[in-house]
Amino acid sequence: MQFLSDNAASVHPAVWDALKAADTPDTPYDGDALSAALDDSFAQVFQRPCAVLWVATGTAANCLALAAMVPPHGGVVCHEEAHIEMDEGGAPGFYLHGAKLMLAQGEGAKLTPQTIAAVLDPIRDDVHQVQPHAISITQASEYGCSYRPEEIAAIAEIAQARGLRLHMDGARFANAAAFLDCTPTAAAGPVDALSFGFIKNGGMSAEAIVFFDPALADVARYRRKRAGHLQSKGRFLAAQLQAMLEDDIWLANARHANAAAAEIGTACAGRLMHPVEANELFVRCTPAERAALRDQGFGFYDWGDDAARFVTAWNTREQDATALAKAVASL
Amino acid sequence: MQFLSDNAASVHPAVWDALKAADTPDTPYDGDALSAALDDSFAQVFQRPCAVLWVATGTAANCLALAAMVPPHGGVVCHEEAHIEMDEGGAPGFYLHGAKLMLAQGEGAKLTPQTIAAVLDPIRDDVHQVQPHAISITQASEYGCSYRPEEIAAIAEIAQARGLRLHMDGARFANAAAFLDCTPTAAAGPVDALSFGFIKNGGMSAEAIVFFDPALADVARYRRKRAGHLQSKGRFLAAQLQAMLEDDIWLANARHANAAAAEIGTACAGRLMHPVEANELFVRCTPAERAALRDQGFGFYDWGDDAARFVTAWNTREQDATALAKAVASL
Amino acid sequence: MQFLSDNAASVHPAVWDALKAADTPDTPYDGDALSAALDDSFAQVFQRPCAVLWVATGTAANCLALAAMVPPHGGVVCHEEAHIEMDEGGAPGFYLHGAKLMLAQGEGAKLTPQTIAAVLDPIRDDVHQVQPHAISITQASEYGCSYRPEEIAAIAEIAQARGLRLHMDGARFANAAAFLDCTPTAAAGPVDALSFGFIKNGGMSAEAIVFFDPALADVARYRRKRAGHLQSKGRFLAAQLQAMLEDDIWLANARHANAAAAEIGTACAGRLMHPVEANELFVRCTPAERAALRDQGFGFYDWGDDAARFVTAWNTREQDATALAKAVASL
Amino acid sequence: MQFLSDNAASVHPAVWDALKAADTPDTPYDGDALSAALDDSFAQVFQRPCAVLWVATGTAANCLALAAMVPPHGGVVCHEEAHIEMDEGGAPGFYLHGAKLMLAQGEGAKLTPQTIAAVLDPIRDDVHQVQPHAISITQASEYGCSYRPEEIAAIAEIAQARGLRLHMDGARFANAAAFLDCTPTAAAGPVDALSFGFIKNGGMSAEAIVFFDPALADVARYRRKRAGHLQSKGRFLAAQLQAMLEDDIWLANARHANAAAAEIGTACAGRLMHPVEANELFVRCTPAERAALRDQGFGFYDWGDDAARFVTAWNTREQDATALAKAVASL
Predict the structure, then answer these.
(1) What is the domain extent for residue A183?
(2) CB-based contact B75 C90, cutoff 8 Å
(3) Is C260:C328 a contact under the CB 8 Å cutoff?
(4) Per-residue DSSP letters for A83-124?
(5) Are residues D279 and D170 part of one domain?
(6) Domain count, chain B
(7) What does the pLDDT look like over B130-165, one tens digit per residue?
């Protein structure tokens, strides 16, 4: 019963079907019909025009989006525990040609206008200090917390006031949208670009960068090729995204994962380090308790010395979730 | 009857089977069993130790290999029509942090010790000029010509004499090895790293970087993550490579493509711009002749004003190759 | 009697005076009065608004100017023998983050609309090929040839038509302006930025980047600091530039150097590889002839096997120029 | 009476003399006799072999030194208030091609083995996290505190144990050496490279990068040119360094500045935020007190809301120091 991560979960049957269906020769790169239809498919989801590029990883999605917004001499405000800062092997430094990540704080790994201002205000407007050019937020956050639409709006406001672009790392955007139970448009808010994750949510190898400003997409297209991310059989990436959007499978999968997380969270509410607003749980428990859980067959990561991280996925079995809920309740 | 390119061809059934078989949860990234076994699988092919990394594109393979060999202030000698110079959107400039491609000439897009020396000799050994650090050759070349083992040895000799690393872009290495009818080891020669292509040859989205110097692989591992090329469900890439190596499918596929090319080449020997030593044909023909071929249902690219390029693939149907052979013979 | 190069010549007395006069404490970096007055001083020279940054080398001037014009995924058309391509140790690759130099041909190391088009026309407008963003020309060229105003206008026209920026490397702009005997504005033409050289012409350590588009200067200011080129005692660089502009010393110095070159060139007109349109001479002569000249005490560089390069400077003594003129006439 | 900064102070007479003496033509770049003698001159100072490169700024010195030590995918541990983090406009990101600064804490802007370990220990040894390659310390620190030889030794020990290079930003190395009253060798400790500052201490435009590992210098030489920092009349930079080393002017100047700072510090000991161990003072005082000091003619920077920063220089007049000492004593 694995709750280690959603990032290595199985591939959804609809994705398999779409992959097989795409196995006819077509124009290489992103010249195929499936890729060409992505803008429209996502425009339907977000009810506004967008330009969409597929890539193979969330790291590439985040970095290509930011590289289109931020010059090499600029900076990006992000949470000090953001994925781009902690877990991408320095990819932003590579893609943004040495631009600087400016680390802000915030509960649940979420930024607020106040914590953003705390980073921005001390920066002197001179050439000796790196100037900010964008803000990047994560929906849901590294701790599985979802920004409410009004929270995004408040951040967008400070972004606009300071002349900054706004990017959303949506590796688990589906889980946030499902949790918030609002439209995708509301869950994304007025961002300039969204890294929309599909791999953790039932895909095999395709994420989407959704640009709401087409000028950014025009730059990112060249950067994607330049980064070796323009796959020649791109139809197999587009097929995954199209399959997941069809009939809102992406939302159904996320709801399933969230429901499992919610069940477990309810069972150990007093131990939660963060509210469960997506498909991740950070649960205070002792090494002995963790050992006991592992003895019962549960797989998960330690989170420091005094906690465990559990992640549910689109294919978490209900009986496994229930079993874990019972197990944590009995600790 | 498509002869446009092999880069968008269908996926081999054995690859599909392997992909499906890999659809069980495993350790993410390259921690899965299939990825872990790659070094051994390729060591069997090359009969010597190697360290292997999967990536999603040939561009990424080439650039990660070269970035492990060449410092940002260095240079790479390559053919003026090499893929890294002409068709990778400036990716070497990105991955190598501004290192310089030093363009050499040579028949059939193949380098020789003489054309390499013609580039190297005029470079003054001072800081005002970029100093070479590596040579990159393409097997088979952009014009479908294959380096003979003794040709590679001669280039390796000049590389060693000048203190340069040697890289091989093997996007069509399989076709070269099949044409040369020698061991893979002989077809690769004493290179430091080989970008071993699988996608054009029946794969879906996986290429291999084969490092014969493990120190280079240690660097490339970090660079791969930093470039956003470490996919979380890496087992699906490893599975493709393993499937293609099994029973030497990679060689069988290449032999099939080569045979089709050879048949067509024999039929229009007098028109060939380059000897057919892999799966590409560059055939002199007038616009009217090309129009006639297209009227007969053949797809291909114009190659300048006076020639056409035909590419066969692992799945080119024999009757299509025969039909094209007849058609070009009748021009 | 040295004719090796102008780049290590002595410093003009007026520059020394200005340096000493600047030796009072002032605001650091470029906050001092001399630096602040540069825009106005150069605006008087060019009779139009400009934004001026001092830097310590021509390499930095060229690369900072180009970096403000060209994104990392773009390209710069320049002559295949341009300084940025041949002699700057790969600095454009560094400053432009891997952007590509696109090499064009032309007599006397001068570009023409035709040679530029020959580079631009074959570039497919797709992401697989680096797209051009700027053209860089050198006034006077590497071979001491000066662009006529109408030649620059023709190049500016193709730049505008193709949506490209235009940069001028003016390491010897003074010599070109003196030779052309026109206004500095005419000698520069409608470029977006000019690297205006002073060091070869009597300065110690200051060159000017003259931006005619202030938006480029705003970017370059950050890049200059980021490149470690914002000197804390910047008043000593500004002082050099101001001193050279005062009373048009820069033009007088260049006229002196040009006159010496002209005298020598007239004496060996039949041997000249290029017309003498600045302060450089490329003179066909045999190794024996060169040895004879050296025996007479003349210092110069060999230019390949069959020629010599002579460079005059602001401080070339008239008797030395006359002596060399006689010597080459007698060969 | 200026105590704003030492970075715009006048130039020492001996430097002027040396500059004038260097105004004869010599080999360009660093081929002149003065530049060629630098290794020996500094070897005498440090009593061990070293390879020395001049550059025009401390930012370039720091970044070229670090770029020779750290690959683009690596990291550098430094204090969170280090100059390379706070005041160099992102130059490390540029020169190190996106390598990461890893911010550590420490009293007085000095690192300790403990604070370094606190940064290093949580870094997982995997490709998802940037791995450290070097440590950079500042002597004297941003708060004018000097590392004792045993403190440097302890840091060198952790560097060696972890396989990290050690760099010292010595923008005010002279002041630290003067304060410590030990040999320069002891004040530098076993670092791999030292950015040895001269500009704040009486120079005009020359800093030295002192490499104790010649392999690093070999790389830095290419990088210096590539960064546009190889000045053609380099003899004027070498002359400054040689002049300052002659008769230990660098030490005498630093002693003078330190003495002034000590006098002022003694007069306001109770208000000091940090011990005075070089030529900087950070003095707690209210806005009203600062206004009062300014009314008396003292120039200085506010340091936040509740403090002032005073910097003495090699040419601070004794009466000015005494006046400030009295003024702060009377607050």
Answers:
(1) 13-247
(2) yes
(3) no
(4) HHHHTSTTHHHHHTTT-EEEEE--GGG---HHHHHHHHTT--
(5) no
(6) 2
(7) 999 999 999 999 999 999 999 999 999 999 999 999
Among C55, C219, C224, C226, the strongest candidate for a mutation testing the A interface, having the largest count of A CBs within 10 A, is C226
A241 and A253, same structural domain?
A: no
Summarize pLDDT for C5-49 with one digit per residue, the tens.
888 889 999 999 999 999 988 899 999 999 999 999 999 999 999
Residue D221 has its nearest CB partner, among B127, B219, B224, at B127
Q: Are residues A79 and A214 both part of a single domain? A: yes
Which of A236, D160, A127 lies closest to C30 in space, CA to CA? A127
Residue D1 located in a structural domain: no
B63, B80, B100: best to mutate for the C interface, most C CBs within 10 A: B100
- Interface predicted TM-score (ipTM) of this complex, two decimals: 0.97
**Domain closes at, from D248, D279, D297:** D248
Interface mutation vs chain D, best among B94, B100, B226, most D CBs within 10 Å: B226
Q: Which chains touch A (3 or more CB pairs under 8 A)?
A: B, C, D
- The chain C residues in contact with chain A (CB within 8 A) are 71-73, 97, 127-128, 131, 219, 221-226, 230
Gap between the Cα atoms of A72 and B97, Å rounded? 13
CATH number at residue C262: 3.90.1150.10
Calpha distance B79→B135 (Å, rounded): 9
User: Of D89, D93, D128, which has the smallest distance from its Cβ to A89's Cβ?
Assistant: D128
Which of B92, B98, B128 lies nearest to residue C97, judging by beta carbons?
B98
- Residue B96, domain CATH: 3.40.640.10
Which residues from chain D sit within 8 angstroms of residue B224, using beta carbons? 127
pLDDT (tens, 9 = 90+) of chain A, 331 residues, equals 889 988 888 999 999 999 999 998 889 999 999 999 999 999 999 999 999 999 999 999 999 999 999 999 999 999 999 999 999 999 999 999 999 999 999 999 999 999 999 999 999 999 999 999 999 999 999 999 999 999 999 999 999 999 999 999 999 999 999 999 999 999 999 999 999 999 999 999 999 999 999 999 999 999 999 999 999 999 999 999 999 999 999 999 999 999 999 999 999 999 999 999 999 999 999 999 999 999 999 999 999 999 999 999 999 999 999 999 999 999 8
Instruction: List residues of D whose CB lies inside 8 A of any A CB.
Output: 72-73, 75, 86-90, 92-94, 96-100, 127-130
The label of the residue with tokens 């020359």 reads: D206
Confirm whether B6 is domain-assigned.
no
Same domain, A253 and A155: no
Cβ within 8 Å, pair A232-B60 = no
Return all residues near A238 (Cβ < 8 A) that are at least 6 apart: A22, A30, A32, A34, A35, A37, A38, A54, A206
Are A161 and A65 found together in one domain?
A: yes
Nearest in space to D29 (alpha carbons), one of C250, C228, C279, C88: C88
Q: Are C255 and C133 in a shared domain?
A: no
pLDDT at A123: 97
Residue A140 preceded by cis peptide, ω within 30: yes
| Residue B2 maps to a domain | no
B7 in a structural domain: no
B292 in the same domain as B203:
no
Question: pLDDT tens digit string along A295-330?
Answer: 999 999 999 999 999 999 999 999 999 999 999 999
Beta A301-302 vs A280-284: how paired, if at all?
unpaired
Say yes or no for a CB contact (<8 Å) between A205 and B229. Answer: no
Q: Which residue of A has its CA nearest to B21?
A: A10
Domain-ending residue, one of D214, D248, D282: D248
B96:C98 CB<8 A: yes
B179 and B235 assigned to the same domain: yes
* Alpha helix ranges (H) inside chain B: 13-21, 33-36, 38-46, 58-67, 83-86, 91-95, 113-120, 149-162, 173-180, 184-188, 214-226, 235-245, 249-267, 287-295, 318-329
Neighbours of chain B (3+ CB pairs under 8 A): A, C, D
